[in-house]
Amino acid sequence: MKYIISLVGILTVIWVIEIMIGADGDNLLTSIVLFVSIYVIAFFALRQTEIYPFEEADKNKIIELFEQADAENQSKNDLEYAVFDKKKLISDEKFEAMKAQLLAYMEKERPYLDSELSLVKLSQFLGTSTHILSYVINTGFSESFYQFVNKYRIEEAQKLLIDPKMSHLSLLGIGFEVGFNSKSVFNAVFKK
């Protein structure tokens, strides 16, 4: 608190000097009134006591309650994460079948060429929920949906780059051909 008061005092002196040196006669009174008003308000705000003061014992009890609540929330979150992490959404057989179906569909139908492909669209093509499809991609391939799809797009872009029939396309044109809908995303993914 002493440091704050000292800082305010130093700033006050600097401000008064600035007002006196740079003031023309018209704004001097306004500047002084504004200056005094701000510092009077600040002075009384710093000296204001608590409206409902707590005793030290009560303050310690309140702090203890907050710390206890934080600890309980943290342990609850850790438990929920551990349960969710171990929870299987589908059986191993269905998981493997879904994974194989997804790979076959990606190879045969090449849905990744659609620049508007989404998790919802792909799950509809495969006849499953977005939740299950996301689980299969995340768990089975250790990738997000977009990482999974963009991997196919990059493989296709690499094929088109060496295809003489596609030599008329720029690198960006090839990016659009394989399903990317923005230059920045294509550049970022292609660099990886």
Q: Key terms for this structure?
A:
Arc Repressor Mutant, subunit A; 9 helices; 3 domains; 192 residues; elongated; mainly alpha
Please explain how this structure is put together.
This protein is mainly α. The chain has 3 domains: 2-47; 55-87; 92-191, Orthogonal Bundle (Arc Repressor Mutant, subunit A), CATH 1.10.10. 77% of the residues lie in helices and 0% in strands. It contains 9 helices and no strands. Helix 1 packs antiparallel against helix 2. The two termini are 53 Å apart.
**H-E order:** HHHHHHHHH
- Count of DSSP E strands? 0
Q: Label the CATH architecture of the largest domain.
A: Orthogonal Bundle
- CATH-derived topology of the largest domain: Arc Repressor Mutant, subunit A
Helix content: over 70%
Distance between the termini: 53 Å
Brief summary:
77% of the residues lie in helices and 0% in strands.
SSE inventory with pairings:
Blueprint: H1 2-22, H2 25-47, H3 56-86, H4 92-109, H5 119-126, H6 130-141, H7 145-162, H8 171-177, H9 183-191
